[in-house]
Amino acid sequence: IVPSQASSDGFLKCLSGAIPTQLLYTQSSPSFTSVLVSSIRNPKFATPATVKPLVIVTPTNASHVQAAVVCGRQNDVRIRVRSGGHDYEGLSYRSERPEVFAVVDLASLRSVTVDQKAATAWVDSGATLGELYYAISKASSTLAFPAGLCPTIGVGGHFSGGGFGMLLRKYGVAIDNVLDATLVDAKGRLLDKQAMGADVFWAIRGGGGESFGIVLSWKVNLVPVPPTVTMFSVPKSVNEGAVDILTRWQEVAPALPDDLFIRVLIQKQVADFQSMYLGTCDTLLPLMGSRFPELGLNRTHCKEMTWIQSVPYIYLGSTATVEDLLNRTTDTTSFSKATSDYVRQAITKDVWVQIFAWLAKPNAGLMITDPYGGKISSFPESATAFPHRGGVLYNIQYMNFWSAATNGSAQIKWLKDFYAFMAPYVSQNPREAYVNYRDLDLGENVVVGNVSSYQSGKVWGEKYYKGNYQRLAMAKGEVDSDDYFRNEQSIPPLVATK
Ligand code: FDA
Fold first, then answer.
1. Coil, helix or strand for 315?
2. Of 203, 267, 326, 446, which has the highest C-beta tally within 10 A?
3. Which pLDDT tens digit goes with each residue over 18-70?
């Protein structure tokens, strides 16, 4: 339902009664566009055709967020919440269909408070991963947090979908290390873990963003890392045996000791084996010699550093500094489309040969494979809403890029065709996907009677959440049975019938 002009006016009036007007940006405000694009990561959602918010609210405390929800409810204006704006489909700030909505942008709510003694921290959703990692490193050189690689990702969206990076084999996904959270629900109440109840606390940890309310902050468990970690990057072309080494990697990487993580970036005719090892080169070399000699690792490949130095090194390049983690500016020049898969049975050598043929085609993109095993795989699938656990060998992310000079249709077609080609070789029934690599081509909600339908959500929901989809829908029914917080891929409410 598109609200009338009257309800939009009522909404704005209600907001300005509760929130300082300098924190509100309507479409006619001179700064509206700069605030809107401030964290847009994919410029394909910053065009004149993009369905934009009526107003952007930039709260500086919890009561502003509560007021935005109460005003939205009273006036039938929905809210989309944005933390870091990295959503692959831009759902935190744009709507796929014509709709009047507001954005609550949490960028100003970004404090990080570390309790070094207890090895815990409270982090606000609007903080970036870079800011979280930086604050931890200022408190201790041997504490870390296991989450994603890109420092400008927002904590709010990232944690909502699970969140993983180079520590996933040692410490699992980000939400495996969440101890408490604060949430503004669809009634505008501010709830902690106890007040929101076990079902909702379970759901916000991996059940995807937007559905259950606005998570304002998270209490996390910090994890120990040694004073020295070792990074390496070993590129192997097809001519140098990439097919054989990759075929072997699938068996080796998920079974290595948890301290060793080796992912692969596969592009054109090269597989780049990129690693973080929680220890020194002296102990890594014999380990690689016995477990994965095919890669031919030697001392010249080793780059020893602290854990915090490894963060800019892996994502921003070898000249980046730890201070660069505080830079929230994002690169908005490259357009992209992504999707994902999970592999449970090693892909055979002949198929890898065909995969490299796909990667050699015109307009081809790339694949990133992240090995599982270790801690991430140690939990039962229902322990958290993030379900991709035991039996997963690795996650695949497919990506393709283009510039403003084209409309991306050739690159998107390549991605879709390649995804179709991969179907027989990846997980099935459901074909699993990672919600943080959001792809609307997996399915979109259909709204029936002003509520997203459970059946329409099942199509994409079981890919993201497997058997947890139904329990997520019931948690949604508990906390937001009217489906106030919704988007194209939010969890539909399921209300138990008596
Ligand atoms: P954004 O603000 O766009 O929010 C994403 C979704 O969550 C939206 O639906 C939004 O409404 C909702 N949401 C946001 N804040 C919320 C809150 N406080 N409460 C409730 N809902 C909220 N992932 C990964 O696991 N490991 C990785 O290494 C990477 N690397 C990576 C690199 C790059 C360049 C990109 C663009 C993305 C990744 N990702 C990733 C994926 C990333 O984890 C995913 O896009 C996150 O959802 C982004 O969180 P943001 O807060 O930035 O997004």
1. helix
2. 203
3. 999 999 999 999 999 999 999 998 899 999 999 999 999 999 999 999 999 99
What's domain 112-224's architecture? 2-Layer Sandwich (3.30)
Pocket residue to mutate for ligand 1, from 37, 38, 83, most atoms within 8 A of Cβ = 83
Q: What is the pLDDT of residues 215-254, one digit of tens each?
A: 999 999 999 999 999 999 999 999 999 999 999 999 999 9
436 lines ligand 1 (CB under 6 A): yes
CA distance 94 to 117: 42
**What's the CA-to-centroid distance between 21 and ligand 1, angstroms?**
28
Structure tokens belonging to residue 326: 């505080």
Tell me which residue of 436, 430, 433 sits closest to 156, measured CA to CA: 436
Q: How far is the CA of 400 from the centre of ligand 1 (A)?
A: 18
Q: Determine if ligand 1 sits within 6 Å of the CB of residue 82.
A: yes
Ligand 1 atom with least separation from CA of 330? 34
Distance of CA 314 to the CA centre of its chain: 17
Architecture of domain 5-107 in this structure: 2-Layer Sandwich (3.30)
Q: Which CATH number fits domain 228-305+333-436: 3.40.462.20, 3.90.470.10, 1.20.1250.10, 3.40.50.1000?
A: 3.40.462.20
Name the residue at shortest CA distance from atom 37 of ligand 1. 86
Cβ of residue 85 lying under 6 Å from some atom of ligand 1 = yes
